[in-house]
Amino acid sequence: KIQELNQHFGNSCQLAQGLVNDTLTAMTGRTYGEASIIATAEGIGDIFQSWTATTGQSPVEQVAASAPAAMAERITGNLVWRALKRSSVASWFVTGGDDQVLSVMMNIAGTVIVTHDPATDEITVQIIAANPDLIESWIEGLVVRYYSCAGEPENGCLTPALATSTWSGEGFARAIFARLTETGGLLDAIRAGGDPSEDQRRLIASLPGATGAMFVRLAAVSDQAAVTFAREASYQLAIELTAALLRELYTAVSRATDAIDDAYSAQVKELLRASSAANEAELARLQRRHGSVGELLALYGGYLDAIQPQADSIARARLEFVRH
Q: Which neighbouring-strand residues pair with 27?
């Protein structure tokens, strides 16, 4: 389930509110210059015609009418989507990445969409801001909506569709909690007193701080205390896993968009900086909600101190489970 979650994420329906129209007149000059270069290279007009409107059409209009493929590739487009597709980011994943994965990466970073209206010859820039609410959906397994470009070519997806996530109830926290406490999980193995499996050893080692050892100690004296502790510890680990995944995906987007070099590359870079800050702020909020590892250990350390005299011998035996 966790591997599936790594490949299939989505964004909150609130992302639909992040679409902002903004005509960036400061970029028009560079855009027209790019169109003029294209027009000259494509033989649409001579150098004078390509750099002026003496034909009755601006350079952008000339390219739109006579070289639509070049227009779609070099002037208009969904810039982050194009960068992800063009750089073959999908091949960077060990398990492979499809258009849904790339769409999620686009939602993590946001995107800049450049369009041209032939009726008015206006260049319009639409900025889709990243929505960090998707982070909680990975942890909790929530149903969310996100912008999808599935099936779109690299020069397409000028109007991303809203899609619905498919991982309801399969969040990181629930998956980790199940591995700790459900039938055949770590709690059962501790009760049985046998050797932990390799997966169980990795799970204990991956729990943040000393929470793995604390879970084993609690399991030795109280199933209920161990289960309650596991529920909180699973959120701590889920947040850490989500943070690591988020940063890896964001880094991949950053590498892909480094190659953008057009009139709107500055807008893309600024958007990515804002997205990173918003994502980190959301992670910090979730960490505050579920408390720190130190607070969790202190709470249950106090519980163990209260019952320690009658539990010492059992706990020592169970702790050998972790060491071996």
A: none
Rounded (10°) CA dihedral 105, 117, 51, 265: -20
At residue 51, does pLDDT exceed 90? no
DSSP line for 279-293: HHHHHHHHHHHH--H
Residue 74 in contact with residue 38, Cβ under 8 Å?
yes
Q: Output DSSP code: residue 56.
A: S
315 HSE (CA, 13 A, CB side): 16
User: Between 11 and 153, where is the model more confident?
Assistant: 153
Q: Which of 50-54, 77-81, 205-209, 244-248 has the lowest mean pLDDT?
A: 50-54
Distance of CA 27 to the CA centre of its chain: 29
Closest CA to 242 of 211, 180, 187, 284: 284
Tokens of 166: 């498919």
Amino acid identity at 165: S
Rounded distance between C-alpha atoms, residue 218 and residue 225, angstroms: 6
Rounded distance, CA 23 to CA 255, Å?
27
Measure the CA–CA gap between 282 and 196, rounded to whole angstroms: 35
Length of the chain counted residue by residue: 324
Beta-sheet strand order (sheet of 122-128): 19-22, 122-128, 111-117, 77-78
Instruction: Copy the structure tokens of residue 236.
Output: 């701590």
How many CA atoms are closer than 13 Å to the CA of 129, on its beta-carbon side? 17
Residue with tokens 């227009």: 71
Which helix (H) or strand (E) segment holds residue 117: the answer is: strand 111-117
Whole-angstrom Cα distance, residue 301 to residue 13? 41
DSSP letter for each residue of 156-206: --SSPEEEE-S-TT--HHHHHHHHHHSTTSHHHHHHHT-PPPHHHHHHHHH
pTM score, whole prediction: 0.70
